[in-house]
Amino acid sequence: MSTKIDHPRCVGGIEGVNITSMGTLVRGAVGGEAMLSVRYSSTSSDPPVIKWQLKRDKPVTVVQSIGTEIIGNLRTEYRDRVLVFENGTLLLHNLKLSDEGTYEVEISITDDIFTGEGNIDLTVDEPISRLRVAMATATVLELTEHFTLNCSHDAGTKATYSWTKGGKPLANDTRLMLSPNQKVLSIGRVLMVDDDIYACQAENSISNMKSLPVKLTVYKRSSLYIILSTGGIFLLITLVTVCACWKPSKRLKKRQREKANILTLRSDPQNHDIIHEDKSEDEAVPIMTEHECRNPVSLYILKEEDPTTDEPPSLCQTCTSEGSSPPSYGSSLAPPSRSPEPPARSSRRYPRTPTNSPPAYHHRRQGQSRSPPAPSPPRTRGPAHSSLPPAPSPPRRQPTEAVRTNLPTT
């Protein structure tokens, strides 16, 4: 449909130029083409003079030609981008955003007195791309205040926005409010009915795009509290179970047991003759075992003691008196025992000797001398730093009658 821009005017019987246009508004995209179509009519057969200008505060000449032949020098921004047809139509290539505006055309013929004029508006837009909905979180608690959804895109000019909820158009509401450009959707107070799918749509003069839908999940406060409380109880049970099942390592237990034994022996006054505070655990004199207390040779030595001695009962006597039955004696040799010699008080520890001898070192430690049950060769004690003490000779066996006289009657 053509639009008549200028009417022919007659002055003195001479007609002017009539210009008509196919439309007064042309839309173009960045990088595309725009054709500003016009037609003119004249009674003259001479070629027309065509001039296109872009209206600004100061008009900018785009092109000027006689027919299709361009005259003069084009501006730098229009070189290789404009083309003029015989009917006065202008074609613009490789559109830019700066090309947008109102274009004015003037067509004149030398024989004509009046010049035809016309105006066409050109809009240049950029297509919308990568439209999306952005929100702080996809899950929200019921009764939350001022929750917002933003519609954004990477490219596009002069876009207008609209929203849909569950596929239906969304308008301003008392709770659902749109910004003046409708780019931002705000929910005044979130309710359970707001749990739905949302999407936004943007369009301009040359493009139209819809975003991917997003799901907004609304949780009830009671449900959230149940989840949090259940998680806290489960965490507490887990911690209690871990603490109850935790056991110290065997090495740590062994060290604690050894320390407890050492402290017990050092604090017991009955053991002050056995372990000395100035000696380490390795240098302490070993305690007599129950097996050594029941040694028949040791029993014989105890019976040979002087009854007038005021010495308190020894450890072996106590062990013997508390026994459930008297020890039996045989004709074989006495069982192995410790060396009768007391350990030398030196900084060097001597290993135990497997030589069989009666354990009579408890009495010797108290300063009283004991005569062996049978004479034995005299022993000389070496210096404190000697390598090893001389091995003692086994005790001589006493007559059977002497042993029997000292045994208690059954």
Please provide a written account of the structure.
Residues 305-410 are annotated as: Disordered. It is a single-pass type I membrane protein. Residues 127-217 form the Ig-like domain. Pfam families: Ig_2, V-set. Keywords: Cell cycle, Cytoplasm, Disulfide bond, Glycoprotein, Immunoglobulin domain, Membrane, Signal, Transmembrane, Transmembrane helix. There is one protein chain. The protein has 410 residues and is an alpha+beta fold. Among the domains are: 3-125, Sandwich (Immunoglobulin-like), CATH 2.60.40.10; 132-222, Immunoglobulin-like; 280-323, no CATH class. The chain contains seven helices and 24 strands. The protein has helices at residues 221-245, 250-267, 290-293, 296-303, 315-321, 361-365, 400-406, and strands spanning 3-4, 10-11, 14-15, 18-21, 25-29, 34-36, 38-41, 49-54, 60-66, 69-70, 82-84, 90-92, 101-108, 116-125, 132-135, 139-141, 145-152, 160-165, 168-170, 176-178, 184-189, 196-203, 208-210, 214-219. The radius of gyration is 60 Å and the shape is elongated. The N and C termini lie far apart (147 Å). 16% of the residues are buried.
Structural class: alpha+beta
The whole-angstrom Rg is 60 Å
Determine the mean pLDDT: 73
Number of strands: 24
Strand content: 25-35%
**What kind of assembly state do the chains in view correspond to?**
single chain
Reading off the top of the CATH hierarchy, the class of the domain at 3-125 is best stated as: Mainly Beta
Question: What order do the strands of the largest sheet run in, or round the barrel if closed?
Answer: 5-14-13-8-9-10
Query: Low-confidence parts lasting 5 or more residues at pLDDT below 50?
Result: 1-14, 274-285, 296-340, 359-372, 380-388, 399-410
CATH fold call of the domain at 3-125 = Immunoglobulin-like
Envelope shape? elongated
Number of helices, counting only DSSP H or I runs of 4 residues or more:
7
CATH superfamily of the domain at 3-125: Immunoglobulins
Main sheet record: 6 strands, mixed
Task: Report, as a whole number of angstroms, the end-to-end distance.
Answer: 147 Å
**Architecture of the domain at 3-125, CATH level 2?**
Sandwich
Helix content, binned percent: 10-25%
Pfam family, one: Ig_2
Protein name: Ig-like domain-containing protein
InterPro entries: HEPACAM_domain, Ig-like_dom, Ig-like_dom_sf, Ig-like_fold, Ig_sub, Ig_sub2, Ig_V-set
Transmembrane segments: 224-246
